[in-house]
Design brief:
mainly alpha
């Protein structure tokens, strides 16, 4: 039998059911502790809790706006949903017998670790060398927490759908954001790996 990246409807229903009693408290407590750690570390990095503009916005549409990566959601929220897709697939392959809530906690840990890396001075400076992120100052704590929520949402969606549907959604997100702002998760990763003056990347963002 080949390895499948999805579960049957019966298996999915059983997996996503949170346990009750003391075990549930441990799960909620672990999730809360991870989010508290995220807040504490980003605060220690000097990241603001809210956007410097003083506005609280549900969505930022302009990729060049100073509110980008500062509010609840923006074009990069789609990338964090895809993170959830990827983490679910990888963890299902690596640890299929681990309860889905335990895998979600691991995924949260990975996502939060990335949020720390993303908000280090070296990473911020690397992003600032790109035209699209010239004014990037890192994420607000609110935006970073929202990114973790988006990843968790993607993880949950992937736990409910067959792999082919998850892949289709991810492709739609990637194509859509590439068309709208000339950036997406694939290009974002390429920007981190490739030299900032690499001609293909400059051509895409110009």
């Amino acid at each position: 039998m080949g390895i499948e990246l999805y579960l049957s409807e019966t298996e999915v229903g059983a997996e996503v059911t949170l346990p009750g009693g003391k075990q549930a408290y441990w799960i909620y407590g672990a999730a809360a502790a991870l989010l508290a750690l995220q807040i504490a570390v980003l605060h220690a990095f000097g990241q603001p809790f809210f956007a410097a503009s003083g506005h609280l916005m549900l969505w930022v549409n302009d990729p060049f706006s100073p509110d980008m990566s500062q509010q609840l959601a923006d074009w990069y929220s789609f990338s964090h949903i895809i993170h959830g897709f990827i983490f679910f697939g990888l963890l299902h392959l690596i640890a299929p017998r681990l309860p889905v809530v335990a895998r979600l906690l691991i995924a949260m840990g990975i996502e939060i670790t990335w949020e720390f890396v993303e908000n280090t001075p070296a990473t911020i400076e690397h992003y600032r060398q790109q035209a699209l992120a010239a004014g990037y100052r890192g994420d607000s704590i609110l935006n970073s927490l929202s990114d973790t929520l988006m990843m968790s949402t993607g993880f949950f969606i992937a736990s409910r759908l067959r792999a082919r549907y998850v892949v289709a959604i991810a492709l739609v997100f990637e194509i859509f954001t590439a068309c709208m702002i000339r950036d997406n998760l694939t290009l974002n990763v390429s920007n981190l790996i490739a030299p900032s003056d690499w001609a293909p990347i400059q051509a895409i963002h110009s």
